[in-house]
Amino acid sequence: MLYIKTIKISQNHRCLKQGLAIEAKQLTLLVGDQGSGKSTILQGLAQLGQSKESFITIELTPEGEKGVNSYYFDSEKHNPRIKDPHLYATAGGKNEGIGFASALKSRFQSHGEVIKEFTVNPIKKAQNCIVNIDEPESGLSIRNQYKLVSAIQAAIHNKTQFFIATHCLPLIQSVDQVYSMEHLRWMDAKEFIQTQM
Fold this sequence. Notes:
By secondary structure, this protein is of the alpha/beta class. The chain has a single domain, classed as 3-Layer(aba) Sandwich (Rossmann fold), CATH 3.40.50. The protein has eight helices and eleven strands.
């Protein structure tokens, strides 16, 4: 289920040029080297409607025009082990808390265990929404990276649209195409991997 049809850069940004348009898919993987603009696009999506000076505009599908919840998670900025656990994510423009018990538990877990609880486990339950995640593989073991891929595939069947900035090889290998921020186009996933060797 597509809610967002196109992401457009509507004004110049420090690492993105005006006029760039990305035709969205149900799973849009933004790939490329550090500093290519992947995270910037996700941050722009998370701030839509909250700032009059947004550098991003989106074209919605008829389903998206009816209204849809959007969730954003950045594994660095929203990690409850290093940030206020009551402000870990933004959903529909408001902060979502995880509760005291979960926050306390997270203090005694490894970085990877916390990230798994904030990415893999909730994604399994996602349905009828948009999920924007910045590098969800951060801190995950190879086994849990494959669990992440399975969770995303399950959520796609539940009408969830994803925008993910990633360097995760298992995730990249799970799709036919990725959007390369270095080449500014959709590429065959295998072709993209070969360009990185």
